[in-house]
Write the structure tokens for this entry.
Amino acid sequence: MNTPAPHRQGIYLLPNLLTTAALAAGFYAITATVAGHHSVAAGAILIAFILDGLDGRVARLTGTESAFGAHYDSLADMVSFGVAPALTALLWALAAHGRIGTALAFLFVAAVALRLARFNSQSGVADKRWFQGLPSPAGAGMVASLVWLMQAHGLDAQRTPVVLVLLPVIAALMVSNLRYTSFKGFDPAGRVPFLGALAIVLGLAVAFTTPALVTFLLFAGYAISGPALTLRQRARLRAGRQRG
């Protein structure tokens, strides 16, 4: 009697290598902020953000998506976009506020953990076009870009209440039910109108002159897009009910 050969479960190298690189960037951010190099930590978190976006796209383009890769990505995200930005914010600004600052840093970490757990539990049924709640990489990117912006302009974070307000707001957006565009259907090789191409060129020119400000505004704009999209959808539903 012939027995079937056991199924071999392999690990795809390229996407998981990118995930490992994102994890390494997050770990480096932790070591940098502990050493007092908060702007370096912010840069490492932003690098992890870029790598995290690449690993998923590479996996989809090469047909190497796997359950292992999805779980590994979530674990790496917890370090790079949960612990690293929270610790950076704590040591950079929140420690001066005592227990309140520590509680806010933990709140951010807990929100990332809840956001990732919900994402994993809904991965098989959720609409791929949207994210439910602000994605944790975007939330971490907003924290990192704020650190970069304030360090670049010599602002004292410990005397500025913006961090105390921003961190719980980001945490609330991550665990909210607001819809955010996933950009998974975006085709970089697709055509764009001439005015769109001109806007991209002008945007790059501005980014080269004030990269910290532009980076923060991009993350802030994406964070605001969730509430704006939800309000617009509710307005359309109300208009449809009134017509009916």
